[in-house]
Design brief:
The complex is a heterodimer of chains A (51) and B (185). Chain A is mostly helical. Chain A has helices spanning 2-18, 24-43. With 185 residues, chain B is mainly alpha-helical. Chain B has a two-stranded antiparallel ribbon with strand order 1-2.
Chain lengths: 51, 185
C-alpha cells in the first residue's frame, strides 16, 4: 500500500498543479522526502526491498 | 524563444511518458511485475515529469515566466536525483561478477540500468533548460499541446497506481521478488 500512497501523492500533486493550488510544492516535497526516507531505510537495513 | 522552450518542455514530458509506457510494456508483455525498487524508480520518473508539467500548466494561462521555468526545472532535477539514487542502489546490488541481475535485460541492459541513464539524461536536460530559463523574458504564449500532454501523463500516473494496488493487494510492502498480483490471490 505504501507505493500506492506514493502514486496517489503524485496524482494529488498533479491535480494541485493543474488547479494552481498552493499545495503543489508542499505535496511534491512530502512525496520526495517520503520516498527518500523509504529508500535510505532500505539502504541502512538488511535487504528488504529487492535482492 | 518562449515557444521553443515550451516545445522542449513538452518533449521532456513525452519522453518520460514513453519510458514509463515502455516499463509497462515489459511488465505486461514479459509478465514481470516490478520489484519495490523498480516501483520507486517509476515514482521518481513520475515526480520528474511533474517539473516540466508545472511549467506547462503555469504557462497555460497565456504567460510563461522565468520563475515558473526555474521552479519546474528544479523539481525535475530533485526528482531525477532521487530516481538516480534508487537506480544506482539496484545496480550496485547486482554488481558482483556472476550475478545475472534482476529481471530480463532489454537491449542488453536491465531496466534499472536504463533508468539510471534516463535519470542522468533528465538531470542534464533540466540543467540546460534551467540555464535557458535565465534568458527567458516573461512573455505571452499560446501552447495547445498542454492539455493533451497533462491528460496523457495523468493517465500513466493512474495506470501505475492501479498496477501497484493490484500487485501489493492489501499488504503494506511488496515482496522483494514479486511473481504475481497479490490482489487477485
Amino acid at each position: 500500500m505504501i507505493y500506492a500512497i506514493f502514486m496517489l501523492l503524485v496524482l494529488l500533486t498533479l491535480v494541485a498543479a493543474w488547479r494552481r493550488h498552493v499545495l503543489e510544492l508542499p505535496l511534491f516535497a512530502v512525496t520526495v522526502l517520503w520516498v527518500l526516507i523509504h529508500l535510505v531505510g532500505d539502504m541502512t537495513t538488511p535487504l528488504t526491498l529487492s535482492f | 524563444m518562449a515557444q521553443l522552450y515550451l516545445l522542449a518542455v513538452t518533449l521532456n514530458v513525452w519522453v518520460l511518458f514513453a519510458v514509463l509506457a515502455a516499463a509497462f510494456g515489459v511488465q505486461l508483455w514479459l509478465g514481470e511485475p516490478p520489484c519495490p525498487l523498480c516501483v520507486m524508480q517509476r515514482t521518481a520518473l513520475l515526480l520528474a515529469g511533474l517539473g516540466p508539467l508545472h511549467i506547462l500548466l503555469r504557462a497555460n494561462n497565456g504567460m510563461l515566466t522565468a520563475r515558473d521555468a526555474a521552479v519546474g526545472q528544479g523539481m525535475a532535477i530533485i526528482a531525477a536525483s532521487l530516481g538516480a539514487i534508487a537506480a544506482a542502489r539496484q545496480i550496485l546490488l547486482h554488481i558482483l561478477p556472476g550475478d545475472a541481475g534482476f529481471g530480463s535485460p532489454v537491449l542488453g541492459l536491465h531496466l534499472y540500468t536504463w533508468c539510471f541513464i534516463a535519470f542522468a539524461c533528465q538531470i542534464a536536460a533540466s540543467g540546460v533548460l534551467a540555464i535557458a530559463a535565465g534568458f527567458l523574458a516573461d512573455s505571452k504564449v499560446s501552447w495547445p499541446a498542454t492539455r493533451i500532454t497533462a491528460i496523457a501523463f495523468a493517465a500513466i500516473v493512474v495506470a501505475n497506481l492501479l498496477s501497484v494496488i493490484a500487485e501489493a493487494g492489501l499488504h503494506w510492502e511488496l515482496p522483494s521478488d514479486p511473481v504475481g498480483y497479490l490482489l487477485f490471490k
